[in-house]
């Protein structure tokens, strides 16, 4: 099996991606559309493996269901006039597709064989099967999956165990409105991943279904309200997780152009968790509300300083693989220091990590999380890279875009700190274009000293901002003027559009280097006399906008190495 190598980012990235449509949202909407009695067009349906399995399963049950890969749309409608009475539905290792189709098959007259791969067959299904038996529908295990003897159950009251997965509850909720008596569901045990049940309820409301979701209960009324003819699937916040971690680790600015705020997707909360966990303090993070981010957070924890304890991950052991065991094994292979416990891992960050060939065991989220690690740690390669197609078919293409969309690097600091010298050398090492902002200004307006004499510092600052704005191009290394930070608009621009490195120098070194300078005085005093006062005013601004700091007293080759390490 060929391994796909992951090259570390040489630059922070600045790019907007079109993320896959949320498969969690899409699969819920597809079921609701099929049962609503109307033809519905779904837009933004990424042809991931899970979505393909669900659409193919609906078609095998006799529903009108077609996926347009190129347009990323799906047409879904009621059952055909001459529907089949039996059939096989192939679901691979798709949890939502398998569990949702069990319930659709249960209310569809006929005998339906739902086939799944070995891993999916080992994942829990009993709570859902028992719920349907209580409602009068036979759901029995077979060698290849499950056989559902579908009929026309009337609905009513039923209990379901919610401790292992909320998908059992969601599966029942999605078909409840099609039952003459609706459903009143008692959830036994604490409900795992409640946020996904809330996502189900929101999708149902889109189709005019009356649903109530309590702490340990749910109620669905019979019937559909105003059913839309077209529904747009939101971008996948789960898929954004790896990019959010890269942003936090590398000062990149990777965005999902099709993400919705307040989406009801659990993974939207990841950024707040990352913001709170950055730094060297020890942290405990409960991943139960967003289990799909457990893998990304484990890799992130190996790279941050401090100890991170991830808890609430019992249920991720029953996903496409035992994610707790697999991520622990692969991170240890990369040199991480961690312990495994029943509900997660404890990672002691700061260990020197190394490259390794990663085996994700066919799990798309393991592959993407370790690829994220590889953007920082050299030498990582991922086996079975195609497994990402389960949820994110374009992941590797997007990773290439991230690598090529290089965020500019801006060096800030006092005149005499060596920004231009470091900038030119760093640009050579990164095969980047170097821009000296002061040189650009002088090419456009003449020497700075005479310009200030003829006009003013205020006019200079206005034009300096225009030069900065034009210089912040992708893949450029820019040495800024020492006083650019005194303009609030320039500070905002630098922080928003560049990776900022503060070249920090003590007053004694600055005085030594600028003694023969022809630059104009800022205060009317000799320039060597004003250094400490000017530095005192500007240093807080430098520190405010800097992502990283380099010590100007170090030899140039060491400064370059430090800057390159910080960029990784």
Shape annotation: elongated
Report low-confidence residues grouped into runs of 5 or more. none
Number of strands: 26
Nearest-integer average pLDDT: 93
**Largest sheet composition:** 5 strands, parallel
Structural class by sheet pairing and helices: alpha/beta
Helix content: 25-40%
Strand order of the biggest β-sheet:
23-24-22-25-26
**Beta-strand percent range:** 15-25%
- Counted by DSSP, the helix tally is 21
End-to-end separation: 29 Å
Taking all Cα atoms into account, the compactness measure Rg is 29 Å
What does this structure look like?
By secondary structure, the chain is an alpha/beta fold. Helices cover 40% and strands 21% of the residues. The protein is built from 21 helices and 26 strands. It has a five-stranded parallel β-sheet with strand order 23-24-22-25-26, with helices on both faces. It has a four-stranded mixed β-sheet with strand order 4-5-3-14. A four-stranded mixed β-sheet has the order 6-7-9-8. The longest helix has 15 residues. The protein is elongated and about 90 Å long. The two termini are 29 Å apart. The mean pLDDT is 93.
Label this structure with key terms.
568 residues, 21 helices, four-stranded mixed beta sheet, alpha/beta, five-stranded parallel beta sheet, elongated
């Amino acid at each position: 099996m060929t391994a796909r190598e992951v090259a570390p980012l040489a630059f922070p990235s600045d790019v907007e991606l079109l993320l896959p449509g949320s498969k969690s949202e899409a699969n819920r909407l597809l079921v609701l559309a099929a049962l609503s009695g109307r033809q519905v067009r779904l837009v933004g349906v990424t042809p991931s493996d899970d979505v393909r399995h669900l659409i193919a399963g609906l078609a095998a049950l006799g529903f009108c269901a077609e996926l347009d890969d190129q347009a990323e749309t799906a047409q879904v409608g009621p059952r055909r006039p001459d529907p089949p009475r039996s059939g096989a539905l192939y679901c691979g290792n798709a949890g939502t597709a398998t569990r949702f189709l069990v319930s659709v098959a249960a209310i569809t007259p006929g005998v339906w064989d739902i086939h799944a791969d070995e891993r999916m067959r080992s994942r829990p299904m009993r709570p859902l099967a028992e719920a349907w038996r209580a409602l009068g529908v036979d759901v029995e295990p077979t060698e290849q999956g499950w056989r559902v003897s579908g009929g026309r159950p009337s609905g009513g009251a039923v209990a379901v165990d919610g401790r292992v997965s909320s998908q059992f509850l969601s599966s029942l909720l999605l078909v409840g409105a099609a039952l003459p008596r609706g459903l009143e569901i008692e959830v036994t045990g604490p409900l795992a991943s409640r946020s996904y049940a809330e996502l189900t309820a929101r999708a149902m409301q889109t189709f005019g279904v009356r649903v109530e979701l309590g702490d340990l209960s749910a109620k669905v009324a019979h019937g559909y309200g105003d059913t839309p003819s077209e529904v747009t699937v939101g971008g996948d916040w789960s898929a954004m997780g790896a990019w959010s971690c890269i942003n936090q680790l590398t000062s990149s600015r990777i965005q999902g152009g099709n993400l919705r705020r307040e989406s009801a997707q659990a993974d939207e909360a990841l950024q707040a968790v990352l913001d709170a966990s950055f730094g060297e303090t020890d942290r405990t993070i409960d991943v139960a509300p967003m289990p799909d981010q457990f893998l990304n957070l484990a890799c992130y924890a190996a790279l941050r300083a401090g100890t991170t304890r991830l808890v609430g991950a019992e249920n991720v052991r029953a996903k496409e693989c035992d994610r707790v065991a697999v991520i622990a094994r692969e991170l240890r292979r990369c040199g991480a220091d961690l312990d495994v416990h029943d509900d997660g891992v404890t990672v002691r960050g700061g260990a020197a990590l190394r490259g390794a060939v990663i085996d994700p065991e066919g799990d798309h989220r393991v592959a993407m999380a370790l690829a994220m690690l590889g953007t920082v740690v050299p030498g990582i390669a991922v086996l079975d890279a195609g497994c990402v197609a389960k949820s994110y078919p374009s992941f590797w293409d997007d990773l290439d875009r991230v690598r090529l969309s290089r965020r500019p690097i801006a060096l800030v600091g006092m005149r005499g700190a060596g920004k231009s010298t470091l900038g030119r050398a760093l640009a050579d090492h990164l095969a980047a274009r170097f821009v000296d902002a002061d040189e650009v200004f002088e090419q456009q307006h003449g020497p700075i000293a005479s310009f200030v004499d003829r006009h003013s510092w205020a006019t200079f600052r206005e034009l300096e901002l225009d030069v900065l704005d034009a210089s912040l191009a992708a893949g450029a290394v820019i040495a800024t003027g020492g006083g650019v930070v005194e303009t609030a608009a320039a500070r905002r621009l630098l922080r928003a559009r560049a990776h900022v490195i503060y070249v920090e120098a003590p007053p004694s070194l600055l005085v030594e280097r600028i003694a023969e300078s022809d630059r104009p005085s800022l205060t009317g005093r000799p320039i060597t006399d004003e250094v400490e006062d000017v530095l005192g005013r500007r240093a807080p601004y430098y520190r405010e906008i800097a992502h990283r700091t380099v010590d100007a007293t170090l030899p140039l080759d060491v400064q370059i190495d430090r800057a390159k390490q910080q960029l990784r």
